Amino acid sequence: MKPLITGIHHITAIAGNPQANIDFYTGILGLRLVKKTINFDAPGVYHFYFGDELGRPGTVFTTFPFTGARRGAKGAGEVTYTAFSVPTDSLDYWIERLKKFGVATSDKLTRFGDQLIRFEDHDSMGIELIANDQDDRTGWSYGQVPIEHSIKGFYGATLNLRAKELTEKLLTEHMDYRFIGEENGRFRYGTAGKPGDIVDIVIDKSGSRGMQSAGTVHHIAFRTENAESQLQVQEILMRNGYQVTEVKDRNYFTSIYFREPGGVLFEVATDEPGFAIDEDEAHLGELIKLPEWAEPNRDKLEESLIPVKLNVESYA
Q: pTM score, two decimals?
């Protein structure tokens, strides 16, 4: 039977300064700004989408940048690290590149046979780059990052929880995930078990709850093919006692949301229709795009948003 959920769709974080946010993810990391819109639930705030050339599901890291937001705190009930996939021999390049721009990294670590580094963005958002040879996706670069070292998309995400049993049941019985293995107290799950679908659970029984603000993940979204498969997922979850929202139209996909038992906000988002529905592929992310219901207030909304621009030439 064809799985309804096939991996990670996107991960959304809360950020601080909008320009610093764009500079870090496009300038330093080399991701493409594929959409510049508003937070549909808080229209006075930007919603940035960063990803590969087209913003394909499994590559898109998104942010809500709240100017002046205080720093959040990592803790239980959160996605504490977002992991991106890079080519096998790229970590030395990335260590030097990050150092060049004042970003401290961990030493090289090894996990489930792959090497990785950890670091934080300007808001203390936890990021990992995991080098591997299992990812056949093509990376993206504005040119300042050599394509042979560019980020290919997500590798996976780490959930920090006080207990794993109920979350594990959700993933493996209702979301098409399977248990892959355990290493040093880290429990790994995947759909196909490849970069782009990995979810790790780390247990922190006595850890304090995370505080959600700048530098923390707001939610993790899992991908499903279309509206029909999304409704099937919704029905399965509701039948098994999860409090799932109605389907919400996010223009570039539709979404349902619910809290997993450990407290992390989960979303299930459709692969369709994608980011090219309101901009040409060659010009993704150049203009502020608004949902139809917000267009009558465009002038007022644009006045409330701090102007931002791409500065990738400053990060060569």
A: 0.97
